[in-house]
Every structure is written in C-alpha cells, then in structure tokens.
Please model this.
Amino acid sequence: LAPADIDAMVHVSDRAYAQWSNNQGRMLFTADVKPGRDDAINLGLFTPGDHLIAMGRAIALAGPWHVVDVCTDPSWQGQGIARRMLSELLSELRRRGDTQGVTLEVRVTNERALALYLAAGFIDRGRRPGYYTDNKEDAVVMWRAPQAVIEAGLADGWEPTL
Model:
C-alpha cells in the first residue's frame, strides 16, 4: 500500500470497523505508509478493477512485530481473504526476521478473528480491559512465536520477552 491508497484504506476500514473516525484512520494510515519506512508493512489486496478489498498491516515495536490490522471489506468477507492476507503478512514478517515473535490485539467478541489467529499459531496471552474506545470492549492480547521456534517444534513452551 502507498500514500495514494489512503482514501481506499479509510473506506475499507470504515466499512469493516466502527472504532475510528475518518480523521483518526487517515492519520494512522498516513503515518504508516510513508515511503521508505522499513519498520512498517502494509499489504493490500485489490480487485482486477483496482479496488482495495483487504489489507494487512504490521509495525515493528521495540522488539516484536505488532499486527495492527487484518481487515476485509464486509462485502468480500467469508471467502478466506483474511486468512490469505494474514498468511502473506506473516510471510513478509518472516522475510524481515520475526526473531522476537508477533503480537496483536483483537476484540473479545470477534470470534471469527480469534479463530483465524488461533489457527495461525497465535496464543491468548491475556486481556487489555476497556481497550477499544468506541464501547470500552476488552481486547484479547495474542502472541505468536518466532517462525524459527515454530519450525524447531519448540513453540509450546515459548514465552515472549519484552
């Protein structure tokens, strides 16, 4: 994704979530898609007509990568697009070196997303009470072991370090 895609990113995000105003999403997306930024990954899936239908985004924190968004336009949901987007995002993280694992937050009521992340090897590591500002809903904090740990068969006992 690039700065020229920000309007489309806001549109997809607004359709999929109710948590931000247009200005909040626009500010976050503008900061994340700056050219040359190597601490952010912004992937998009476009239709043949060049319409954005899904995005996967991650930023590097002080240590682990943080998945900030796996989002599919509601009219395209239920077709495995989020699974594909997450897979592509994790592949890119692996190429960049996910040596300290990957983390994310997801709404406690978002059962489809929770199932997606669990199937991708994320584990439930706790809650952030009142994390979402629109309704004070809790977030589930999830972690995924580094790919090298998973491939070595050691993910069961892995603990994130901060």
Notes: The two ends are 29 Å apart (CA to CA). Helices lie at 6-16, 22-32, 81-96, 111-119, 147-151. Residues 3-157 form a domain with the Aminopeptidase fold (CATH 3.40.630.30).
